[in-house]
Prior knowledge:
The structure is a single chain. The longest helix is centred in the N-terminal third of the chain and has 72 residues, at 26-97. It contains eight helices and four strands. It has a two-stranded antiparallel ribbon with strand order 1-2. By secondary structure, it is mainly alpha-helical.
Amino acid sequence: MDYHGLQARLADLKTAEMAALRRGDTKAAERCRERQFALRHWWTNEQGRHYRNTENRLSKDAESNESQGQECIGTAEEEDIDLFSTYAESEENQEEEDPGTAEEEDTREEKDKESYSDGSEEEEATCKKAGKREKKPCPLPHCNAKVVHLPKHLRNVHDWKKEYARTALSRFKLRKEYEFTSQETASAGNRRAKPKPKKVLAARTPIERENYVLCLAAWCLQSDYHSIYREDTN
């Protein structure tokens, strides 16, 4: 029986216990509780036996690896000494032949460092100008993927749960740290909400109100135009 089967069996026993209590059968409910306790006790004993066997196996493997590693270290040290002696002799011969090669190599290394630093700065600048987010390597071992959104990568690729994937940036210390200019600006009292931009309304122009008075005669379709502003001015 695996873990999921055990959980299903315990859930069935719990439902049977609740049904027995609703019926008023206390003996059946007590039997269900005893079976639940026996299942949990059996599971803990099985897990303890399993982990004890794995620990013994791992300790034996570690001892055998240590013994093999000591033998390999002895042979590797001898090989390293031989390689070092041959490498030193070859370097001495090269210096005697070409004394200016060391200076050329130093200048070449400096140029490579400058070009590498300039390239990385240029890439960051282009990413910022284009508005693209920088890709970061996945912190999990044996995963060399570079992703933009780490929680989504952990959920979709590594099958992490949502609550663990959302806190991965903080737990792996990958969240961006914001620096303040001084301790006073970093205090909580100085943090204020950004003011909302005020809507600037255009100045209202006075609208001329017009009144049209129709003639009362049934056959007359003429209308007389009267303006309030004109009456005030007159």
